[in-house]
Amino acid sequence: MKSFTTPALAFVACAWMAPALQAAEEHMASMHDMHAMDSGHAMPPMANGHDMQTMPMAKTAQAEGVIRKVDKVAGKLTIKHGPLESLNMPPMTMVYRVQDTAMLERIKEGDKVRFLLENRNGTLVVTQVEPATP
After folding, report:
1. Pairing relationship of beta strands 112-120 and 76-81 according to DSSP bridges
2. Stated pTM of the model
3. Which residues are paired to 112 by β-bridges?
4. Is 82:64 a contact under the CB 8 Å cutoff?
5. Which residues in the chain come in under a pLDDT of 50?
6. Residue 25, pLDDT score
7. Quick one: pLDDT at residue 50?
8. How far is CA 123 from CA 88, 91, 99, 109, 132, in A?
């Protein structure tokens, strides 16, 4: 009986490991996608076919909206707002991180606010928020 040679053994090992490596790679990609969605900055393509993460964006946008949720633990705000022209964003309700969690103490759900967003490497961060004047 002939014994396996090193190249044959390497081939068998690679063939045996390939499905496991592919599964691990797919798992890592899905974990990255889930982390991106949790971070509040990944978005599906918009109705006009643009992908928010690949579009060039202005650095800041000022807008008005209504606070839908204040998450003090996560340091996030859910804001329903109109179009943000300088960021090429349609009207939507979206979760944003805040620059300073102290600003979350000054607002509550249902408040009409004026806010400033800053694009920080693809992540939109609320840098200022104040009650909107009637």
Report:
1. unpaired
2. 0.57
3. 66
4. yes
5. 30-44, 46-48, 50, 52, 54-55, 57
6. 60
7. 47
8. 14, 18, 11, 23, 24
Q: Within its chain, how far is the Cα of 101 from the centroid?
A: 19
Give the span between the Cα atoms of 134 and 122, in whole angstroms: 32
Rounded to an integer, what is the distance from CA 123 to the centroid of its chain?
7
Can you tell me which residue has the tokens 């004047």? 133
| C-alpha to C-alpha distance for 112 and 12, rounded to whole angstroms | 65
Assign 84 to helix, strand or coil. strand
Q: In Å, how far from its chain's centre is CA 99?
A: 15
User: What are the E-state strand segments in the chain?
Assistant: 60-71, 76-81, 92-98, 112-120, 123-131
Which residue type does 54 have? T
Tokens describing residue 19: 């499905």
Contact between 62 and 116 under an 8 Å Cβ cutoff? The reply is yes
- The residues near 44 (Cβ < 8 Å, ≥ 6 apart) are none
Q: Return the sign of the alpha-carbon dihedral for residues 75, 81, 86, 90.
A: positive
Could you give the CA distance from residue 17 to residue 22 in angstroms, rounded to a whole number? 9
What backbone phi and psi angles, to 5 degrees, belong to 71? -110, 90
